[in-house]
TrEMBL record:
Domain of life, source organism: Eukaryota
SUPFAM superfamilies membership: WD40 repeat-like
NADP keyword on record: no
Species this protein is from: Coccidioides immitis H538.4
PROSITE patterns: WD_REPEATS_2
Protein keywords: WD repeat
A single Gene Ontology CC term: RAVE complex
WD repeat residues: 213-244
Protein name (record): Uncharacterized protein
InterPro entries tied to this protein: DmX-like/RAVE_component (IPR052208), WD40/YVTN_repeat-like_dom_sf (IPR015943), WD40_repeat_dom_sf (IPR036322), WD40_rpt (IPR001680)
Length: 417
């Protein structure tokens, strides 16, 4: 829903309500009959499906999905005013600007329809709420292509939508900003100029993505990273975890969400494997192996175990062949007894499906051995040494740590490596 906003807070104007509906219709509601049975009456509607009809029709649910948002007349007028002040009227955008100046003279509200495939249609709404309704009150402004968004490609049903908040201003005085809230938990900051956004000529970069924000809905309990520092995983008390990838940007290193997962079991410890493509969660009486390459992590297998004491950690055991697709992990308890598992990592281009090894007859996770480190005193914690071993290096804003040295300490103050 969207309520029309006045040009100034002190300005009084008739309420207008826009509803963007699941049947691909945008309905405009206004108080046309003051003595009618309801406060708002249906003034008009826009068929979003009919507004965008691509040349190559694909009859899938995603292909017929439409998105819509409203640009209030106040924001459209302000954006046009700033463009006229800043733009060189003799450049190649002059024709598109002239067209929008003619549109702005009607003081319309703007209804924008998107299909998520790069197509956009814009409609002007004139004299919204007037008792005399005419087909001329709704007129087309532009049909454009090349408006690409970061819509989720692997979204769950309840995540497959987005809402938009447009306004004048942003990076530059003549910027026009659109905040896109994707229902998978991300917010994208999109920057453009109003005449570039609605320019009917082909453009490759109609919108510039300035940033994408995402995160947790609750307090973060723990953050774990890979030894080289390129990948992180953060998790909350309700066992929701997000996997982040460190990426270089012009302003410095940034974190980009790669995947997320929700575990039915309490996550006691987490270990990232193969540069963050997979991970192992240590639970109280089980370990689970996850594929976190897709946006939604998938549990591939779970293995129950029994230790004689509370498990403290799950560690990667170094091997002589760093490129091997087989890795070994170990969980160690308070009494320094532990269990080791062997994991066969799926290939980089392999499609993985199923839980508890249900992918044909292949199993990824199996118990390898049990051991006891021979320390008679109970320990409080065991961690990889950070940083240690070889010469300390820096990876962006995260330093490296060694995988061949671990440190334990006891309640009595004894430290062992």
């Amino acid at each position: 829903m969207h309520w029309r906003r006045p040009h100034h807070r002190e300005q009084s104007m008739e309420n207008v309500l826009y509803t963007i509906c699941a049947d691909n219709k945008i309905r405009i509601w206004a108080p046309m009959e003051r003595h009618g049975p309801s406060v708002l009456q249906l003034w008009n509607e826009i068929d979003m499906a009919a507004s965008i009809q691509p040349r190559h029709l694909v009859q899938t649910e995603q292909a017929t999905r439409r998105y819509g948002f409203i640009i209030d007349s106040r924001d459209f007028a302000l954006a046009m005013e700033r463009v006229v002040q800043c733009e060189n009227l003799h450049d190649k955008n002059h024709q598109a600007l002239e067209h929008l100046l003619e549109v702005a003279s009607k003081n319309p509200e703007i209804c924008v329809v998107l299909d998520g495939k790069g197509h956009m249609c814009a409609w002007g709404l004139e004299n919204v709420g007037s008792k005399v309704r005419s087909s001329a009150n709704i007129f087309n402004i532009a049909h454009v292509e090349g408006l690409h968004l970061s819509l989720p490609s692997e979204a769950l049903p309840h995540e497959d939508y987005a809402q938009f908040y447009p306004f004048s201003g942003g990076v530059f005085d003549d910027s026009f900003t659109i905040l896109a809230h994707y229902f998978d938990g991300r917010i994208e900051w999109l920057d453009s100029k109003i005449h570039i956004l609605f320019d009917p000529t082909p453009r490759k970069r109609r919108l510039i993505s300035r940033a994408i924000w995402s995160g947790h809905g609750g307090a973060i309990k723990k953050i774990v990273r890979t030894p080289v520092g390129k990948m992180l995983i953060s998790r909350t008390d309700d066992n929701k975890a997000t996997i982040w990838r460190q990426r270089s940007a012009s302003a410095g290193p940034v974190l980009v969400q790669q995947s997320s997962l929700l575990s039915d079991l309490h996550i006691h410890r987490t270990l990232l494997l193969d540069d963050g493509k997979f991970l192992v969660n240590l639970h109280h009486n089980a370990v689970s192996f996850w594929d976190v390459r897709p946006f939604h992590g998938t549990m591939l297998e779970k293995c129950d175990f029994q230790l004689s004491s509370k498990p403290l950690c799950v560690l990667l055991i170094p091997t002589t062949d760093a490129k091997s697709s087989t890795v070994y992990i170990a969980a160690i308890g308070v009494d320094m007894a532990g269990i080791a598992w062997e994991i066969d990592l799926p290939p980089d281009d392999g499609y993985v499906n199923g839980t508890d090894g249900v992918n044909g007859n292949r199993r990824y996770l199996r118990q390898f051995c049990t051991f006891n480190l021979g320390v008679e005193e109970d320990v409080s914690y065991i961690i990889p040494v950070d940083p240690a071993g070889s010469r300390v290096k820096i990876s962006g804003f995260l330093d490296l740590f060694a995988t061949d040295i671990a440190l334990s300490y006891t309640h009595g103050g004894t430290v062992r490596t």
